[in-house]
Specification:
about 90% helix, about 150 residues
Length: about 150
């Protein structure tokens, strides 16, 4: 087994951890949380954040490290434009994710007087985060088939 195979395997595991929540949040988790009454809603956000955040960070770090190693192993100094475009989308995904998981969920796990506005922001940014994750996968598919 080559080092590149190991890197790709860990990269894939990291992607599942990191982008899996980006896909689940607007499709599964938010509809469930929306169905709860207010005290349970606040507790659910706090619980999901507490459980997911360490995996989110670990997945992101694994993706970053293994992606960096793979880039040099596969492309050397001649990366295709699609890789650069994918990295721009990854940075956008990181920004959306950081805003959601480090700001919005922390605010929503506390009692907030303007919680309706925060919930709306969470909804919008969850869909934007999911769109960015899907776009990353589309660039990846384009790179692998082109």
């Amino acid at each position: 087994m080559s080092l590149l195979t190991i890197e790709v395997t860990f990269h894939t595991i990291g992607l599942v951890l990191w982008t899996g929540m980006a896909l689940l949040l607007p499709l599964v988790i938010l509809p469930y949380i929306r169905s709860l009454a207010e005290p349970a809603r606040t507790n659910a956000v706090a619980d999901i954040s507490r459980r997911y955040l360490p995996w989110f960070i670990a997945g992101g770090l694994v993706v970053g490290l293994t992606g960096w190693l793979q880039t040099f192993a596969v492309y050397g100094d001649h990366s295709p434009w699609t890789l650069y475009a994918k990295h721009v989308v990854v940075v956008i995904l990181i920004l959306f994710s950081a805003y959601i998981w480090f700001y919005l969920t922390r605010k929503l796990s506390q009692s907030q007087p303007n919680a309706a506005g925060l919930w709306k922001q969470l909804e919008v940014f969850a869909w934007l985060q999911m769109a960015a994750a899907v776009l990353v996968f589309l660039f990846l598919a384009w790179m692998l088939t082109g």
